[in-house]
Every structure is written in structure tokens, then in C-alpha cells.
Input
Amino acid sequence: MNIASSKYSSFVENNGGRVLLLFLLFLLAIYEFVTAGFSAFAIICIIPALVLVTIAAFRYRMFVFWILFFVNYFIQMKDIHLPVPMSIPNEMLEIVLLIMALINVQDLKAERAGNMMLYVLIIWCGFCTIEVLNDTCDLGINIGAWYTGARLMAYQLMYAFLVYILYITNPKVLMKYLFIWGAVALFACFWIWKQKNMGFTAAENLWIQTRGRSTHILQAGTLIRYFSIYSDAANFGIGIAATSVAFFIFAITSKILKHRIFFAIVGAACFWAMFPSGTRTAIFCFLAGFIVYIFLSKSFKIAIPASILFVLFVFMLAFTTIGNSNQQIRRMRTAFDRNDASAGARSVNQQAMKKYLAEAPWGIGIGIGYENVPANNKYRKLATMPPDSEYVFIWQHTGIIGLTVFVIVTVIMLLGACIIVFFKLKSPSLRGIGAGMCCAFVALQLGGYGNQVLMQFPNCLVFYGGLSLVYGLPFFEDEWMEYEGKILAEQAERKRLKLEKKKASRV
Output
């Protein structure tokens, strides 16, 4: 009895304050439930979880990074409904990560961030900041609308760059990232298979029968474009095609067998998944990525077979009827049809935009759209025209000046990354990771020329962040070679033991 009493006293002395705090919190939650209803009750109850998440965030900073990555990938699932705009959780997590990096200044490897990609992104963000003064439509300066557009068009690119280059700083984290990226990409492939073979969820079906009907149910209802966990089929098709390019290149260049197998599976699954999306641009994105890799590989052993496969694949789609029994393949084949009606409609829209934008070299303004341009305004029609392309969207809102700045910024950051891959990296496998990121970025940019996908979730974070990774690779190349050598040695030892066991069994 005395022992039990002593233990109880000790517990109260050490934890009494915490127990009392939790008890008071419990009483407050019950009071709020009785007086204010379930919403206030839920908020009070979630406070302990928020406290735990905050503590975990500061103790395990990568925990927040992985949350950010998963949020970007899954936030556009039709069954997920948030009371705030989808960009808010993403932006908040990125800002939290940057604040934590600054707080832990002793671990901050800021020298990695001082590169060409940072400098050109500063130029683009600076230009978009100046756009707040753009009053082409004579509506006055609308700071709220401008900031909403600018943070999606420019600032999130800077956030993605900084978060990736400051948090993925060693081989173990890099490989963990590639495996997690591959795993969620496989889930996206599974989900499109599930949609195709098992049907949509209630929320997905509601969306495709309403907002998505005109673009996702085609040919009198006989062809459905599937979109997986992404916002729409175009976003999925282009994003998954770029992912396929990256993982095929990782598989080709990796020296570690288990990594090579996993990367090849992801690449093949993503290649298959772009067909049910019915996104014709995805074919060109995939091909463009591999064309760039032929130059970056620095190897005839890789370049020659890749070139042969590339030519055969294009020839099959453009000049044969192989696979025509499949509706999705038939739709992909129309990408090579110059008389396609969809492409013609886009061309007509762009010609009309060109006439308006000749008098608006700064565009109609960032954040300006049909909802805030009145019917009697000169630029009303321009504000209501569907851009159908990220580059056309930038042209529409920032004019020929903004489009020129964006194109120059994009080319410079891509060339800077390609120079690193081609000249600075000595390890073939690390060069392969860098090449995969560069080629995926090219694939995405081509997709942005045909569809409005560059700034969409999860493409912006994954591919702009991925390009920033290339700038960080030279800083841990020596560590990478040591890491890879250790795994290869273990792989060789397992192979040796397996052979010895096999020989012993024959005796």
C-alpha cells in the first residue's frame, strides 16, 4: 500500500500539471460542445494534436517536408473537401519549412541555394511583383486579386526551389524521396486503373458528370478520359508522362539492382497510365523528355538504343494502326493529325487574343479574370477566353513582356541544370538522377505549351523542386559515391553468399 501510494505521489509530482491541463481542456471541450455545437468542440479537441504536430515539426523537420509532399499529391482528390483554397495548406507548409530552416541556422546550408536558378526566379518574382501596378483594364489596383494570382504564378516556384534545395541534402534523403515519389506515383496509376475497371467514387462521378463532362466524356459517351487523383485528365496525363520519363532514366542509370527494378516498374506503370487519361500532349511530353536524355547521357551505348526505340514508337503511332482496338490509343494517335478540330479551336482563340494583346504589352494583369472585368470593358472578351495552355495564360495576364521574361527564365534555369549534369557530375548514377529531373522538367514544359498544367498540384512542387535538386547534387557527390559503394558492396556480398550456397547444395 505504501509502495502504491509512493508511486502515485511521484506520478502526481512529475505529471500533475499536465494531467490538470488536459482535464481543464476536456472540460472546455464539453462546455463548447454544449453551448456552441460540434465545430467548436472539434477545434478544442484538435488542439492537443496540433501541439504534438508542432513539437514533431521542430524536432523532425523532414516530417513536415513529407507532409508537404503528400498534401501536394493528394489534395486534388475529388473526395477531399477543404474549407479553404487548396493552395493555402501547401503555401503554409512551405513557409513553415523555410521558417524552421532559418531558426536552425547552424544546420542551414544556404550556400547550396546561391545558384542560377535562384537568381532567375528572383527576376520572375520581381516582375510579377511589379505587375501589381498593371491597370490595363482601368479597374484600379486590386492587391488581393494580384496576390492570389502572383503566389500561384511566381512565388510558389520560389518556395519549391528553396524547400527542396534546403531539405534534400544527402544521399539517404534523396533516395527516400525518390522511393516515396515512386510509391505515390504507383498509387496514382493504381487509382486510374481502379477508375477504369471498378468505377468512380460518388464525388468523382459527380464531377465528371458536371464540370468535367465536356472535356472528359467524349465521342457520344463512348470514350472517358480518366484523371486518377489529379485535378483533371490533362494534368494527370502530362504529370505522369514526365514522371515516367524520370523513372525510366533512373532505372537505366542506377547501379543498384533493387533500385533499378523499382524505378523500371514505376516508369512502366506511369507510361501505361498516361493512355487512359486520353491526353494527347502527353505523348509528345514523353518523347521530348527522351530526346533531351539522348544528349545528356554522354553514352553511345544508351543514345543509340534509345534513339531506335524513339523512332519506332513515333513510327508506330504516326504511320500504323497498331493498337487501334483501344480507344485511348486511337485518341493518342490523333495527336499527329494536323487537321484535329481541338487544335484548330485553340489556334482561333490565340489569334483573337493576339489582336487584343497587341495593345496590352503588360497583359490584362495578374489575378484579373472574367469575374472582375465588367461586360462593357474593352478587355472583357480577352478575360473570358479559355487559355488552354500555361504559356498562353501567362501571355494573357502579363503580356508579351511577361511571357518573354518567363521563357528566358525557364530556359536559363534548365540550361544551368543541364550544364551541371553534363560537365560537373562524375558519378554516372548521380548524373542519371540529374538527367532524369532535367528531362522530366522538359516534358512538363512542353505540356505547359499545350495545357494549363505547370502551376497545378503536384506538378509545380515535384518538377520545379526536382530541377532545384540538380543544383544541389554536386554538393554531396562524394557522399553519394560512398553511399552507393557501400550498397554495391553489400549487394556483391549477398550474391557471393548465394553462389556459395548454390555450389554447396550441389556437392
Q: What stands out?
A: The chain has a mean pLDDT of 81.
